[in-house]
């Protein structure tokens, strides 16, 4: 395993809370983010396989996923069902024991004013402080 990925595993093992921030890309996380998670959340680190299924190894950790997008966040959540976010939560994070997984969707990022962007940053800072 590349040393950078080993360092990421060490950071995940050390921390109690995982923050994942990415832009929505074709309804999902970008391929590089998915590839990173596939490599870091390997068997032996994030879960073990046994005769009766799998055992999550990252229990006791929580996560916040922040997704930015060009469309209104409500459209992604309600019309599209936030399918990419649901998949990440169910098939990766919950699978390895990370619960709860909370999310923040930030829409219409390209047209946002400086004031609106500052508001988003203030909200995220407040959420980050609450996680400590």
How would you sum up this structure, described in words?
With 132 residues, the chain is of the alpha/beta class. It has a single domain (3-131), classed as Flavodoxin domain (Rossmann fold), CATH 3.40.50. 44% of the residues lie in helices and 21% in strands. The protein contains 5 helices and 5 strands, in the order H-E-H-E-E-E-H-H-E-H. It has a 3-stranded parallel β-sheet with strand order 1-4-5. The chain has a two-stranded antiparallel sheet with strand order 2-3. The longest helix is centred in the C-terminal third of the chain and has 18 residues, at 114-131. 12% of the residues are buried.
Helix and strand topology:
Elements: H1 3-14, E1 17-23, H2 31-40, E2 47-50, E3 53-56, E4 62-68, H3 73-79, H4 83-93, E5 101-106, H5 114-131
Parallel strand pairs: 1-4, 4-5
Antiparallel strand pairs: 2-3
Average pLDDT reading: 95
At CATH level 3, the topology is Rossmann fold
The CATH architecture is 3-Layer(aba) Sandwich
Derived from helix and strand composition plus strand pairing, the structural class reads: alpha/beta
Strand line-up of the largest beta sheet: 1-4-5
Ranges with pLDDT <50 over ≥5 residues? none
CATH superfamily: Flavodoxin domain
**Quaternary:** single chain
- Distance linking N and C termini: 31 Å
The succession of helices and strands, N to C, reads: HEHEEEHHEH
| Radius of gyration, taken over Cα atoms and rounded to an integer in Å | 16 Å
Proportion of helical residues: 40-55%
Number of strands: 5
Name of the level-1 CATH class: Alpha Beta
Reported for the largest beta sheet, the result is: 3 strands, parallel
The best one-word shape is globular
Proportion of strand residues: 15-25%
